[in-house]
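Morning run. Coffee first, then this:
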Amino acid sequence: MNGDKLIRKNDYLCKVMFKDPLGNTYTSYEEYVNSPNLDTGLIWLKLWSGERTPQNDEERHIKMELDEMDRKGIVPEFNFD
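And here it is:
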């Protein structure tokens, strides 16, 4: 089934989809966390946790800074409005 995750609920096969607050849908969690539509704070959080692959030079730089903080034992603060 071309990599799609399916779950069985009450004998119906349901395709697992992820939806962001803007209503965009994604076929996988990986596609969702790597989306350009995420809030900046959430992008930083996902980069820090390793769930997001840096998408551009700015994100690669942020990831390097977050990795350096981790090596020093510093836990970053993420502020969400």
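Residues 57-71 form the longest helix (15 residues). Good start to the day.
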